[in-house]
Amino acid sequence: xxxxxxxxxxxxxxxxxxxxxxxxxxxxxxxxxxxxxxxxxxxxxxxxxxxxxxxxxxxxxxxxxxxxxxxxxxxxxxxxxxxxxxxxxxxxxxxxxxxxxxxxxxxxxxxxxxxxxxxxxxxxxxxxxxxxxxxxxxxxxxxxxxxxxxxxxxxxxxxxxxxxxxxxxxxxxxxxxxxxxxxxxxxxxxxxxxxxxxxxxxxxxxxxxxxxxxxxxxxxxxxxxxxxxxxxxxxxxxxxxxxxxxxxxxxxxxxxxxxxxxxxxxxxxxxxxxxxxxxxxxxxxxxxxxxxxxxxxxxxxxxxxxxxx
Amino acid sequence: xxxxxxxxxxxxxxxxxxxxxxxxxxxxxxxxxxxxxxxxxxxxxxxxxxxxxxxxxxxxxxxxxxxxxxxxxxxxxxxxxxxxxxxxxxxxxxxxxxxxxxxxxxxxxxxxxxxxxxxxxxxxxxxxxxxxxxxxxxxxxxxxxxxxxxxxxxxxxxxxxxxxxxxxxxxxxxxxxxxxxxxxxxxxxxxxxxxxxxxxxxxxxxxxxxxxxxxxxxxxxxxxxxxxxxxxxxxxxxxxxxxxxxxxxxxxxxxxxxxxxxxxxxxxxxxxxxxxxxxxxxxxxxxxxxxxxxxxxxxxxxxxxxxxxxxxxxxxxxxxxxxxxxxxxxxxxxxxxxxxxxxxxxxxxxxxxxxxxxxxxxxxxxxxxxxxxxxxxxxxxxxxxxxxxxxxxxxxxxxxxxxxxxxxxxxxxxxxxxxxxxxxxxxxxxxxxxxxxxxxxxxxxxxxxxxxxxxxxxxxxxxxxxxxxxxxxxxxxxxxxxxxxxxxxxxxxxxxxxxxxxxxxxxxxxxxxxxxxxxxxxxxxxxxxxxxxxxxxxxxxxxx
Lengths: 309, 544
Fold this sequence. Notes:
By secondary structure, chain A is an all-alpha fold. Chain A has 13 helices and two strands, in the order H-H-H-H-E-H-E-H-H-H-H-H-H-H-H. Chain A is about 70% helix and about 0% strand.
């Protein structure tokens, strides 16, 4: 029993970081009032650029390239939504489509349909003193992103709730006009949040192609960006909540793999497709029961115009 | 347009909606940038690029629509942008202390730890003032500060303003409520269509003279044309006069309290208004039962608000033919939800009622229309019109499938044009051009189109919410006249308004809502503004 739990926990910790980073990025952007539908696209761009960069440079540096790529796509979103006040959902969806088609195009023209050549994965870190403790041992043997994914939610939560910057970001997501009348710049705050969100989403994508896989595959990130949005909503737009939700989804995924491998007979009864859909069904279920609560930033998706109030 | 503001004075800037008062003040606060001209502070020409510059110069502004983040605490709202920190982190405890100190210094009673969305409107306004003072404002601009306040809160604000002036600070009060301006200001600047037309001292003028200055002679002619009868005109003037703002308390600068009247006097004036407004309908007097048929009888109405919390907690209501029933209350006490229940837009969670002969429960908007309920909603652009459609198309909305707007399954273009033209002429919509997109009209004319459409359907019950918000005096007079006309023709009108003066001027009976309950019920001659105000703040119901 303990052994199964250990394996589930280990698999969860292995799979969670990408989702956690993307969800945190979405939280950052949306708390400042900019809709983050584009995370899926940012993840894809981050994953692709990291995989390609890793062919010519050390993998950790390639992850950095992936982050920058995510931020670059976020900058397009910021330009459209903040500078030109266009519809944020439409802009996000457009980014997703561009990333989907652009990724496929570049992959097929340069590397063929089977993905980029394999790269050096990020190395797992081992903590021998932990490894012998039951259950906690599952913490050992992951690559760096896993540990970052455990730390970052705390940092982001602290930033949002305990620093002046966090106060301003929350204010700008709820009532940008109030922020403007105090002499603060609404565009600057929103730009910061959108770019930060892009960095995090890009990191999430880069983690997919450098630790979960060892290449960029055709379908990466396979809807993980949308699950990140679900985690953000489920977590009520707080970093810790989003982290908990993302971990829950990752656990659901680990459970699926665990079920399939530990009870092979199960596959005769339950089709593989149902198991594959399990995390997504969980997401739907959770969102259905949670409903729309008041935790949504009040000015989310509303372009800021000085002369309207 | 040029204007001097002197140190340590209380300057009032009055003018109609759209006269440019708010734009001028937004320029002073650095939110808008002037196309030409300059601003000097203390003799030095300055460029105000953003509110940051204005704040640095000691200019603070309290906006008409509060600039508060509802989910943050009072302290957080006040310090936002200049937060105290300790080792890089936001020092909440110190923020609370600082804000408490500022409150104490200026004599405000506020809990810095309270979340802003739990405060009353009056308290939120204090937060706004504290916010400006906390930033060291020497000049405080208040934009229409009493528009949303109860009479008690308005009195308190007047004391606050006089107190600030007594401390050597300068207050600029923007308003179109003349009585209140006459009661507190040292000097009054009158604006009309972006120009300064007069500067007067309260001692040298009267509400009537100010109104004339504000409206301008040409506009005034329109007004009297528009008003159906001399009585209506009188009533509208009385309305102007009776914008009650009794000056009381604050004896700090008695020399300047010109135009001051003891509180009793104001009461007397309000009574005068009633007599005038009532001239048309002497039938409704104390003790007399209204004669009309019962249109609506509801008991124990309960409904949820948009946030899922109970917004109506048991409202009893009756409306008869040929009466205007006013719903008074501070914003957000269930008035909106009540109007939506009556028009089928919101479902009941409990309670029952009879609306035009059939049950209120399960009412849909289509069903409401079929029974003869008209609706002039609060937010006309969202709920009443399609702004990109033409005026005539908007007039046909809702009745587009029957004559004169349609013949069989086809649109009757000629019939629609004819009806639209007739209505535009009757309601003095300018320009009277049925093919213009509705958004090309001014707000007042848009509202006239909505009122025209709803009344043209000859509703038996008309639900109007904030019918004159944002309209200029001319349009207000017309809308009021139309509502009185509808009443005279036997329509029952439910008038929801945050403007207590409007309710008192029009309604035959008034229900006061507080937190989703009726806390008071008044019938025309026994209106007591003070008592109504008390009820609006939740005081217990003693009669009714």
